[in-house]
Design a protein that fits this description.
Alpha-Beta Plaits, about 120 residues, elongated, five-stranded mixed β-sheet, alpha+beta
C-alpha cells in the first residue's frame, strides 16, 4: 500500500478527524468550492534504499499534510488530531510549520505536518 493510500485510509477511519473534516480529506489540493476545515496531503519525496546487490529494497516516502481552517487555532487543533491518528500507523513526524494565505477571502490558515514512512 502506498504512503498516500495509507494516510488517506488512516485519516478517513479516525473519528476525531472526520468529526472535524467530514469527508474533506484530499490528495494534492483542497478544491476551491469546498468548505473548511479540510486536509490536503501530497508526497514530497521518495528515498530509495538499495541493497548491496544494487537492487531497490524499500522506499521511504516523505508526505506533507496540510490542515486548513479559518483560524490558526483550528488549523493547529486539526493537525493535532491528524498527528494522533497517524502515529499508530507508523508515520514518523519530521516537522511542523505554519502557512497562511491571508490574501484569500476569507483568509486560510494552515498547519503543515511533514511525515516519513517506510513502504
Amino acid at each position: 500500500m502506498s504512503a498516500e493510500s495509507l494516510l488517506y485510509s488512516t485519516l478517513s477511519a479516525a473519528s476525531a478527524v472526520t468529526a472535524v473534516t467530514s469527508t474533506r480529506i484530499y490528495p494534492d489540493v483542497v478544491p476551491q468550492d469546498k468548505s473548511l476545515p479540510a486536509i490536503a496531503f501530497v508526497r514530497a519525496d521518495t528515498e530509495y534504499a538499495t541493497t548491496i546487490h544494487g537492487t531497490v529494497g524499500r522506499t521511504r516516502a516523505t508526505v506533507e499534510l496540510w490542515s486548513m481552517a479559518s483560524t490558526r487555532s483550528a488549523a493547529d487543533s486539526l493537525a493535532g488530531l491528524a498527528l494522533a491518528a497517524l502515529l499508530p500507523a507508523m508515520f514518523i513526524p519530521q516537522g511542523k510549520r505554519p502557512e497562511d494565505d491571508l490574501e484569500s477571502d476569507p483568509p486560510i490558515y494552515s498547519t503543515v505536518l511533514t511525515y516519513s514512512i517506510w513502504e
